[in-house]
Amino acid sequence: MSDAGRESVPPPPTLRHVDPDNTVRILLATDNHVGYLERDPVRGQDSINTFKEILQLAVKHDVDFILLAGDLFHENRPSRDSLYQVTALLREYTLGDKPVQVELLSDPADGKAAGYDFPAINYEDPNLNVAIPVFSIHGNHDDPQGAGPEGALCALDVLSASGLINYMGKFDLPLSEADAQTAGIAIRPVLLRKGTTLLGLYGVGNVKDQRMHFELRSNRVRMYMPRNKDEWFNILLLHQNRVRHGPQESVPEGMFDDSVDLVVWGHEHDCRIVPESVAGKPYYITQPGSSVATSLADGESIEKHVSLLQIQGKEFEMKPIPLRTVRPFVLEDVVLSEAAEEEGFDLNDQITVSKFLKSRVCSFCR
């Protein structure tokens, strides 16, 4: 649905009374794209600097965990430098002696690395001191590659095996077209509890939009929810096209399970982090947007944010937090015919036109 067609509704109510012992605090971000333009002499460290700021905000706001909705890395095979810096930052800011306040209720072995004994959820491992767990799905930039006996792997698998990230939303893709006709998509949750608040995290990593569209319309996306699902606050993370690009090249907003309370939408880079209601549905959608600009698009010029998400029982509130390390991104329309008349230069003189445009760009750098 376009912005123009969306009904204007107030944001969801804030928590009337925050009880720290029963309130889950989450730092929410997506599309970090670490490694974007890493060889550029000016912008090379932009993505990693902002990822560091996000981790620092998690420590500052004393969150229970960090939730990422895909594209942590810009490349499917990130450079050694990108992988090294992300690994070092996660170790620096998410390990420590602070006790984790959210209790895992689902099976700690669900989703663990095949052939190994350590649990899938890092803070359940007695050999690790985790202070701030990080949960993440994969996006279209850092998706798993490969199939067969070894399975599909990506950089998140490496971080998961090292005990730094809890990689969720990974499922086996069918190996043939015939398998795809009967496979469907199964989403198994990470079930958490803090005091009286029950929280279900349902993640589905990026798949082709045509397939996700088909699976949703065919009612073949199966979310394995507890029997008392209405007592849980259920979050669905996905990483798909939200803006319509064709008949089946996006995912409709209104096709998710009615038991979902909040959809965290990754992949779209413009920041629409304030939760938006969906006509005829009980859930809200939040679209955090990217933490680094990767294209010359209007949406990238919107101020970048992450969010402090607080959940107590079935109520929640979100506090957008602006990112201070993001390089300013400015868009301006220039009508050369009008500029030529005002400045008195010849439109056919390409050198003069280039000098004029360069001066306009440089004016924003001062």
UniProtKB/TrEMBL annotation:
Q: Which Gene3D superfamilies match?
A: 3.60.21.10
Predominant location category: nucleus
Limits of the Calcineurin-like phosphoesterase domain? 25-270
Subcellular localization, per the record? Chromosome; Nucleus
One annotated Gene Ontology cellular component of this protein: Mre11 complex
GO BP field? double-strand break repair via homologous recombination; double-strand break repair via nonhomologous end joining; meiotic DNA double-strand break formation; mitochondrial double-strand break repair via homologous recombination; mitotic G2 DNA damage checkpoint signaling; mitotic intra-S DNA damage checkpoint signaling; telomere maintenance
UniProt KW keywords: Chromosome, DNA damage, DNA repair, Endonuclease, Exonuclease, Hydrolase, Manganese, Meiosis, Nuclease, Nucleus
Name of the protein: Calcineurin-like phosphoesterase domain-containing protein
